[in-house]
Amino acid sequence: TSARVPLIAGNWKMNLDHQQATVLVQKLDWMLRDKRHDFAQVEVAVIPPFTDIRSVQTLIDGDRLKLKFGAQDLSAHESGAYTGEISGRFLAKLGCSYVVVGHSERREYHHEDDALVAQKVAAAYQNGVTPLLCVGESLEVRRAGDQVAFVLGQLDVALHGLSAEQVNSIVIAYEPVWAIGTGEVATPDDAQEVCAAIRGRLGQLYSDQVAAAVRVLYGGSVKSGNVAAIMAKDDVDGALVGGASIDVEEFATICRYQ
Ligand code: PEP
Predict the structure, then answer these.
(1) Domain with 40 in it: what CATH number?
(2) What is the DSSP string of 162-173?
(3) Percent of the chain with pLDDT over 70
(4) What is an example of a GO molecular function annotated in this UniProt entry (predicted)?
(5) Cys-Cys with 68: which of 30, 62, 97, 139 at CB 3.0–4.6 Å?
């Protein structure tokens, strides 16, 4: 019983070209309409590769689909000699609602550290795109029982210098690295523990109002069979879905977890 509208976001990762993207988005919309999905009750977003975003935007705008969309990354810079990078300004211009920042695959394969993640979060805000900030511990950290301290450390750096007004709109995804793409899902209690700790930290750093407003998602091998139990937890306000988000029937079922 909170005022937070749950968010189910599908991170397609490096899957689906722009033609496949238009097929999936149309099918997803039809399926959710068929099932009378109430977008005011549960928000649904797709997060395709950059090269798909224009096609997805055209479809969503033109047909007045209620899906939201976002990008998987952005540059810390506004513009200039940064070959291959994508500015938050471009994402804003295309109407992206969200941009994923600090996904574990970016941290691991592109050596993004917490300081760079913080710059990217700031760049997203500068352009009016809501950051979907990913945090989460490795298996090693989890085995040592240090998951809460580790995740709060990531959070403190990523949010450094932001105002309460900015943080009020952020979306945070708790994604234990050992559960991403592995089929290994955190238990609902594991998810709740860290999501509650994140909310507690927001209360300490900002205010109870900010803590109550921010949506904290869980991500890591979410599927139609485990989503309801995870969503039932008080401090879990949605899911960031990777692998299962490119299977449109599975993703639509996840969106209808209630
Ligand atoms: C992700 O990419 O954010 C993710 C949670 O992946 P998966 O659902 O495949 O574990």
Answers:
(1) 3.20.20.70
(2) --HHHHTT-EEE
(3) 99
(4) triose-phosphate isomerase activity
(5) 97
ipTM score of complex: 0.97
Torsion angle of C-alpha atoms 138, 139, 145, 151, degrees rounded to 10: 20
For residue 54, being part of any structural domain is answered with yes
Q: Is residue 2 part of a domain?
A: no
Question: Is residue 1's pLDDT more than 70?
Answer: no
Is 1 contained in some domain? no
Q: What is the pLDDT of residue 136?
A: 98
Structural domain span for residue 216: 7-255
Q: Are 199 and 152 in contact (CB under 8 A)?
A: no
| pLDDT tens digits for range 90-121 | 999 999 999 999 999 999 999 999 999 999 99
In the chain, how many domains are there?
1
CA pair distance 18, 166, nearest whole angstrom: 32
Please calculate the CA angle 158-162-167 and round it to the nearest 5 degrees. Answer: 85
- Catalytically active residues are 103, 175
Distance (angstroms) between ligand 1 centre and the Cα of 241 equals: 5
Does 153 show up as a binding residue in the annotation?
no
Ligand 1: atom nearest CA of 173 is: 3
% of the chain at pLDDT higher than 90:
94
230 within domain boundaries: yes
